[in-house]
Specification:
Helix content: 25-40%
Strand content: 5-15%
Distance between the termini: 31 Å
Number of helices: 19
Oligomer: single chain
Largest sheet: 5 strands, mixed
Structural class: alpha+beta
Radius of gyration: 24 Å
């Protein structure tokens, strides 16, 4: 008998289970009236207020083509990635249930920006002389900036479902990093490495980078507000003088795994899962050989850790990267290890295997094992260079600890975390969190709207990142409360959530009108959520899904002591007018292959 890989076994079992569920969809009905909680009213108000704010922001900062009204330039400080970041949070808002206008605007802006930065060219900076984008993807950058610029693309799939244009882009972009596209030879399949930290649709940079590569063409900085504090173009160049070491694989490139992950979500084709597993397993092996700590430099010639000198900590943005800030004249620790967590989260999402979380946990322990006593205080390192560990802090190193706990749901991982409002609420210690957090986000929307209304900077004096602080989208508290989800960061990863909702009447992602949701408990096999219909006259029906992409299986739902078997990734819930209930869901996390297809497309 041939033993099937884990996911093949799961796929076979699920194909039977889903077919049966499709023939007899589980529908729960809630008829019990519920007094409207303050959090439910505030959720609906926050969702409603953001649509007009986002429309006004778009109309001020984008033209009819979807082009950003700014001084267009190439550069890591204020270049193409920042332009797309003006839509941070918009896809999540629509996927929660905000007005369809938000989706129409971010789609129009996405298409416009792709065209705008394809047409934009440099004069002196070599890589972008024929366009800053090529084949709808940035020509060459690092995955701190790639990830930031791709937040819109990576999360707009929450609402798109089986969209062919999106699917075509997802496959093409993944091909840039899988060694299947000869025009973008970023990946070495024999060594299982991405060949440079600077990579893109025109391939990798295999020479030392220059400050010009990072900064872009000269311009009159005095006409603009540079958010990093530079006052002259010379200071821009000085900022990147030490960013030369880019050839070879780097833990920042783990963010690139999001592209094959998204391609896998499109149609669950095994080749994308197989590439992700092979690449991530290569990194796990390197960690094992490096004492549990992920290296930041892998030699592109032979795949050795740290190259001939064994400098595993090397590379720009690596473990030993502490360049001089020309504005302050001081060295600053710029290790970008937090970004690497994206790859481990993608691996758990796609494979369902906790060994990737285990590897990150092992790294936290390995770093903290190097703690030392200084003047009677125990201190913990955050950096490593030629002289050994440095960057000492009073608290244990716990980069990625929140994400690790979310993946594992283990008590020892939770113990690393200090309480914040949301975590304390989930533990039953902060009952006022929902209302407080929602009010804070409402105030944020209003504050940012007032700020961009008051800004009279002409477009020709705006850089692409000058408007980021005015973006009125505020989805954080809604993601935590409605989805039991992690608020996606700038790293460029996907949304990770315990639940999602869909409106079958409107055939779109998000809760139907008048519906609010509050996840109040998260455990390894248990989720508690309250759902309510605020409409006193009309019923509402929604589809409840396990996971952002259906990766969690809902085994049963308990309402008022009555248990209903579900055994599927979704079930339907009919809420009578003014009705609501607390549901206890028994779940198996990461028990199904994730998909971006909407429930009625499966």
């Amino acid at each position: 008998m041939i033993a099937l890989p884990r996911w093949n076994r799961v796929l076979i079992l699920l194909s039977v289970g889903v077919a049966r569920a499709a023939a007899a969809d589980v529908t729960l009905t809630v008829d019990t009236p519920m007094a409207t909680p303050a959090w439910a009213r505030l959720q609906r108000e926050l969702l409603a207020e953001q649509a007009p704010a986002c429309r006004e922001f778009y109309e001020k900062h984008f033209d009819q083509r979807g082009f950003l009204k700014c001084f267009v330039r190439w550069g890591a400080n204020d270049g193409p990635d920042d332009a797309f970041e003006n839509f941070n949070g918009w896809p999540e808002l629509h996927a929660l249930g905000a007005d369809d206008v938000i989706r129409r605007l971010y789609e129009a802006g996405h298409e416009g920006l792709l065209r705008q930065y394809t047409e934009a060219r440099t004069v002196e900076t070599p890589i972008a002389r024929e366009g800053m984008h090529h084949r709808e993807f940035i020509v060459q950058s690092d995955w701190m900036h790639h990830g930031e610029g791709l937040q819109l693309f990576h999360r707009m799939n929450l609402s798109l479902g089986a969209d062919e244009r999106y699917a075509d882009r997802a496959r093409r972009f993944a091909g840039f990093y899988m060694g299947t596209d000869p025009a973008a030879p970023n990946y070495d399949p024999s060594l299982r490495l991405i060949r440079s930290m600077l990579n893109g649709s025109r391939g990798p940079m295999l020479r030392p980078a220059t400050a010009l590569d990072w900064v872009g063409d000269p311009f009159d900085v005095s006409r603009f507000v540079a958010l990093h504090g530079e006052k002259t173009y010379a200071q821009f160049l000085q900022h990147y003088e030490e960013y030369t070491d880019v050839a070879g694989d780097h833990f920042l490139n783990l963010v690139a795994t999001t592209l094959p992950t998204v391609a896998y979500l499109v149609a669950n084709e095994p080749r994308y899962r197989e590439w992700l597993t092979a690449y991530m397993d290569a990194w796990l092996e390197r960690m094992r050989r490096n004492g549990g700590v992920i290296p930041s430099h892998i030699d592109p010639r032979d795949g050795s850790i740290g190259g001939p000198e064994g400098k595993w900590w090397g590379g720009a943005y690596g473990w030993g990267f502490s360049p001089v800030n020309p504005v302050t004249g001081k060295r600053e620790d710029r290790n970008r290890i937090p970004r690497a967590m994206v790859g481990f989260m993608n691996a758990v999402l796609v494979t369902g295997e906790q060994r990737y979380a285990d590897a990150w946990r092992g790294m936290i322990d390995a770093v903290n094992a190097n703690a030392r006593e200084f003047d009677g205080r125990r201190r913990y390192p955050t950096m490593f260079g030629k002289q050994g560990w440095y960057g000492w802090k009073d608290e244990p190193w716990k980069v990625g600890a929140l994400e690790l706990w979310y993946l594992s749901m283990r008590a020892d991982d939770r113990a690393r975390l200090e309480d914040n409002g949301w975590l304390a609420f989930l533990a039953g210690r902060n009952p006022t969190y929902p209302e407080t957090a929602l009010e804070q986000d409402r105030a944020l929307v209003r504050r940012r709207t007032a700020a961009f209304r008051a800004d009279d900077t002409p477009p020709e004096r705006r850089l692409a990142d000058n408007m980021l602080a005015y973006n009125p989208a505020a989805a954080g508290s809604l993601i935590q409360q409605m989805l039991g989800g992690l608020v996606p960061g700038r790293e460029g990863g996907l949304l990770h959530a315990r639940l999602r909702y869909f409106d079958p009447a409107a055939r779109r992602a998000g809760v139907p009108p008048d519906v609010a949701a509050l996840v109040s408990e998260l455990g390894d096999t248990r989720t508690v959520v309250t759902l309510i219909n605020l409409n006193p006259r009309e019923p509402r029906t929604l589809i409840v899904q396990g996971g952002a992409y259906g990766e969690h299986r809902i085994e049963s739902a308990t309402v008022a002591g009555r248990v209903t078997a579900v055994n599927n990734r979704t079930f339907s819930l009919r809420l009578a007018p003014g009705a609501g209930a607390k549901l206890e869901l028994a779940m198996r996390r990461y028990a199904a292959p994730p998909t971006l297809r909407l429930p009625w497309e499966r």
